[in-house]
Amino acid sequence: CYICFCKYGSFFTDWRCKQLKTKIMLKKTMMITLSLMLFACSNNDDTTENPTTPSAENEIFSFKGDDAIGTSYVPRLVKINQTNGTTTDLIQTTLGESIYGSVYNKATNEIIGIGNNDKLIKFNLTTNTYTSVSLNLTGDFGYEDLIIDNNNNLYAFKFDDAIGTSYIPRLVKINQANGTATDLIQTTLGESPYGFVFNKGTNEILGIGKNDKLLKFNLNTNTFSSVSLNLTGDFGYEDLIIDNNNNLYAFKFDDAIGTSYIPRLVSLNQTNGTATDLIQTTLGASVYGFVYNKGTNEIIAITTNDKLLKFNLTTNTYSSVNLSNTTDGYYENLVIN
Question: Which residues contact 263 (CB under 8 A, 6 or more apart)?
């Protein structure tokens, strides 16, 4: 070693001078890095200051009809409070017709339904407005319920009563912008299927045939198959419901129990059609408009005596709440976002 006068203002040995220079260089590097980080953060202020608020999920909507408004059926879109049954009006229509087959399109934040005048009706929940587009139907054609898949593609069952004397439904894909339909699966069924749900695990549309079969329409292969639901006597099924894990449920009714309509919630095996009873009700009313709330793990429906029913799949129990303002009005099917 040798002694030098370091530029940092003191006498140091050569190795000590080098050590000090290294420390100062590290400090400078750290200051430059910190300055760059602060500059980068300031440039990102425009994108991080006001983050997008996610839309609320698991809200329930319905179309409420009012026959008391003039002589026309005038449906309005309402949001239903699942705790107390009260409703909030969202969109008042000028339609003099019923709306059916309603589904929710997550990508556009729209509830989509079919009007009896063969129009596709789209209710925008962002703007609280609605628009419609013709479904271009002629002759003896019509549509059953709508179905929407995991990618927000829209499907329906189109029937033609003019083909001989049989009712021949076919599965079609509907263009949501212009209402045109593309045929996908032509069936040989002489009946109307109903109760459609989409199984995202198998990419199938499931429905019930009136000959007591579970129908499965495969969107990968554009084919369909069926399995018997093993029903006998006075039993039958209402709509299907599917949960977030693709488990399938239905409401099974038995008109032979006394003189009352007694529905029960069952779980359906999609392979062999067998049913497992889950919740036996004491309701003497029909249940319709089923949706699944993944937030509460409940199946929610409406009864014909104006109650909102909640079937808890965790506890296998059910509860109900009265729906408000049902004088001269009634509810169509439920929709959940």
Answer: 238, 251, 252, 253, 281, 283, 286, 287
Closest-CA residue to 163 (of 193, 188, 136): 188
Give the whole-angstrom CA distance, residue 146 versus residue 126.
22
pLDDT of residue 255: 59
pLDDT at residue 205 tops 60: yes
Dihedral angle sign, alpha carbons of residues 260, 266, 269, 275: negative
Average pLDDT of the residues of the chain? 78
* Contact predicate 317/323, CB 8 Å: no
316: closest CA among 267, 273, 269? 267
Long-range contacts of 259-265 (CB under 8 A, 24+ apart): 260/284, 261/285, 261/286, 263/238, 263/287, 265/299, 265/311, 265/318
Confidence of residue 106 (pLDDT cuts 50, 70, 90): very high
Q: How many CB atoms lie within 10 A of CB 69?
A: 14
Kindly give, in sequence order, each residue whose CB lies less than 8 Å from that of residue 227, ignoring residues fewer than 6 positions away.
213, 214, 216, 270, 271, 272, 273
3-7, 163-167, 280-284: the lowest-pLDDT one: 3-7
**Burial group, residue 60, by CB count within 10 angstroms (0-12, 13-18, 19+):** buried
- Of 77-81, 137-141, 274-278, 331-335, give the lowest mean pLDDT range: 137-141
Q: Cα-Cα-Cα-Cα dihedral of 133, 139, 143, 149, to 10°?
A: -60
Distance of CA 47 to the CA centre of its chain: 30
Q: How many Å apart are CA 108 and CA 250, to the nearest integer?
A: 29
- Reported as a single tens digit per residue, the pLDDT across 107-155 is 999 999 998 778 999 999 999 999 999 998 776 677 888 999 999 999 9
**Residue 335 and residue 103 in contact, taking contact as beta carbons nearer than 8 Å:** yes
- Which whole-number Å values give the CA distances from 311 to 116, 300, 337, in the listed order? 31, 6, 18
Of 310, 308, 196, 198, the closest CA to residue 244 belongs to 198
